[in-house]
Amino acid sequence: MQRNSELWGGLFWLLIGGFIVWAGRDMGLGRLNEPGPGFAFYWIGLLMSALALVVMAQALLSGGTPLGALWAETRWLKVAIVIALLLAYAFGFEAIGFIPATLALLLILMWFVDPVDWRLALVVAVIATFGVWAVMTKWLKIQLPAGLLENILR
Fold first, then answer.
1. Domain spans of the chain?
2. Which of residues 75 and 54 earns the better pLDDT score?
């Protein structure tokens, strides 16, 4: 039972879910017809906790995978590359802008880190980038940094 990775994973998410429930209640739930700022957090935390309990129950009933097998075939170099790319994305996001930074990140990830056909990578990167940009800027009215494309996106 100590070496059951699914049990430990479920326990981790149960603790996270419990914290989210507590934080949601602390922010205020409000009423059903007038939800408070913590309303969604509270219910999401409850859902996370319930799913974590299901994972833990399945781990106890079926035995789960050993803890050592959890990291057995991890490709640590790729993990380090992805972390470095995400840090570079975060630091250059505002200066470069959302569209070029996101396109570059997705293309690098799909071409070099976990290679897929270049045509598929290009289509997915363009659709994902411009789809998220449209939702964020047009529907949700969230301002994203234009960066290098400032003169074009005005």
1. 5-71, 76-153
2. 54
